[in-house]
Amino acid sequence: MIINLQQKEVAGALHLYLVKQGFDLQNKTVNIKFSSTRKDSGVLATINIEEAGTAYSSTPTAVKSVKAESETSKTASIFE
Asked: Which terminus of the chain is more solvent-facing, meaning fewer CB atoms within 10 Å of its CB: N or C?
């Protein structure tokens, strides 16, 4: 089985994951930036959480990086 996800779907899943982990995102702006890594390291998601109305900066202050695993690695649900 192959499941293809668009970037906006992955971003939505990461947003739900943050809420499930206990992050209070009410009145917050969440920016998720995806970037490719070198070789077989996959994709890096940088998550910036700011108070609503705060201008987004390219150098975020509150950041959590989440590394996506390659196809051959073990998979686990982020919703467990």
From this structure: N
21-57 burial string, b = 16+ CB within 10 Å, else e? eebeeeeeeeebeeeeeeeeeeeebebbbbeeeeeee
Rounded distance between C-alpha atoms, residue 38 and residue 40, angstroms: 6
User: What mean pLDDT comes out for the span 48-66?
Assistant: 64
Average pLDDT over residues 45-49: 93
Rounded Cα–Cα distance for residues 26 and 36 (Å)? 29
Q: What are 46's two structure tokens?
A: 């940088």
Domain extents for the chain?
A: 25-69
pTM of the model: 0.61
